[in-house]
Input
Amino acid sequence: MASLKNTFTRIATLMLLGLALAACSGGDDGSAGTAGATGPAGPPGPPGPSTGSGIPIGSTTNINIAVSTVAISAGGGAPVVSLTLTNDLEQGLKDLPAGDIRFALAQLSPGVDGGSSAWQSYVTRSSAGIADAQADAERGSAGSFVDNGDGTYQYTFANDLTAYPAGPVFDGTKTHRLGIEIRGQAPISSNGIIDFVPVGGAPLFERKIVDNDTCNACHDRLEFHGGPRTDVEYCVTCHNPSSIDGDTGNTVDMKRLIHNIHSSRADYQIVGFRGAVHDWTDLVWTQDIRNCTTCHEEDDLDTPQASNWRLVQNRAACGTCHYNDGDDANGEHDYMIENGEHPLGLVLTDDTQCVTCHGPAATVANGDVQVAKAHEISTQVASQRFQYNIVSVSNMTVGMTPTVEISVTNPLDGTSYDLLNDVEFTTCAGGASRLAVGIAWDTADYTNTGSGAGPAQPISLNPLACFGNPGATPVAGSPGVFSVTAGTAIPAGAIGTAAVTIDGHPAVDIGGVVNRIPVTNVVEYFGIDGATAVARREVVDIANCDNCHKELSLHGNNRTDNPQVCVTCHNPNATDVNRRNAPCTDTLGTDDTPIDFKFMIHAIHASGGIGAPYNVCGFGNSAHTFDFHTPGDVANCEGCHSQGTYFPVDPNVVLGTTVDSGADPSTPIDDTVISPNTAVCSACHVSSLAAEHMVQNGGDFSATKAADSTLISSGVETCGLCHGEGRTADVEVMHKVRDFPLN
Output
């Protein structure tokens, strides 16, 4: 009772004091004092009451992750993460089991002794019995995971950050990154990345070097470790310099892992999930390994540190390509840069020495060993000095021999090359200099019937004075312009539009070695017999090809970066029959293979994935077998195609694909043919069930052709009824084209 009595006494006293103060209110009012400083933020409160407005997470086909806050108390207490999960309709998703979500947390530190900045994960795990060998993500079941029932969640890490045994020393002023993955549920659209500074404020120190767009340009969609790791910025939280593969001792640091894989390093292996051995020594990257800027895009605002490839020289990154492969005879990979062994007998003890020779302002060797300079591809630099031009065409008439006027100019200074005297076009030995003008018809679908170059090849004109050829004729009054006349007349039956092309390569001496320089091919269109010129349909964007290939130059650097030139030869009537001779036939047999672009490109890129190699005889009767896994997804039509150009075609307009040119390759009438849509689809869909489906819907694997190359078939393809745009089995929908990030 005494305690209660004292409480009443204190309350009464406070009431009297309040009355006394009120009685003074009519007196002099003092001015308000200045506001006091904001007090420190208190610890996060408990979750608010659930509204229950979320929908079950099992009902969605896609999960979006958004992290609102990550709170870490002073000194490195257990982080508290507030996040929201939604579907694509922005409805909250509830009922996620704690065991299905994982949280990665890493701290970023500046580079030491000239090296790169580096992430380091707080959470680690053992690998091959080595404790804390690899960075890891923490399962939601390890700490406290609270589901608010409306799509919002709160997770408190299992430990204070100071309690993780192999984590970095906590520094609340450094940049931190949190990322999330969800397993066992619908796919996630991102890894919920958030960069923050525990003491507050925006991160001022960053490491953003490569982003998803650069990778997805070739890979279409990054999905690793079973699918839920989709973001490069998430990958680096684990793939950092502190992580190794315990089985091999090899690093899994991102910069070294990715360089080692893409350079097919001979001694680099990783033992992955369930003991699976991963070896990339037979990987062939789709472009020159020196194309650093393919991945490191300095003009991308999302990657402000992309220039690190040339500004932060270090042994770890450079040593991934410049290593000792154990072969002293090949002149490549003869130094262990990463271990300090360097050309000229130099021994590197840290990375501070690298900038002297390889920095952006280095003058050693006249600056030629600056990183950017050393990685220049000399043939690509030289190609900037050449441009092919079709000036005019005359006599594009049946029964007449066309004359084509051309020039080759230097777009850097506007000058023209003398095709008959300049060394770039007169280095005939070994075919170093080559230039060809092609005439192909008809752009509705090329057949080239009657060209005299079989099967189905264009008329070819040689403007260079090599090997007894007289060369082109200078055009009077037009310096730098040369004319060349076809040796074959436009044949009877040729109608519509002809394509006139230029391909080939000048020869340039680079460092004492003569190089064939790839130059972008050109094409122009001209009506036959005065017809209105109609360009050939364009279904493939070279920019898409170059996402992977950077520069698509084939056939000895003759055919470069212009699919509209490729299709003049790789047309529906063409096979490799002219190359089906020994020694190719010793390996591949005597049956010819279609080289029609619409079949060939699909067959090549699908070959490894479907287990159906594409075999073809090439130049010099050489055998070529394509049996590889494309780095992208063959279902992504827009990886190559322009939007909307991959639906079924009209089988009355687009020609069928010749698979056997018959006894007389100069005529299509004895060809064995696959109907056009069936030819395309069967290049990837190779099962007997798929073939039966095609035949049931009018497809034909044993059709023939009339003299004008039109199809003679037992049926009529009806593919468009189901697979056309907006139809029940729309190709775009069935291939999930819109699901790929860059489409």
DSSP finds 17 helices and 33 strands in the chain.
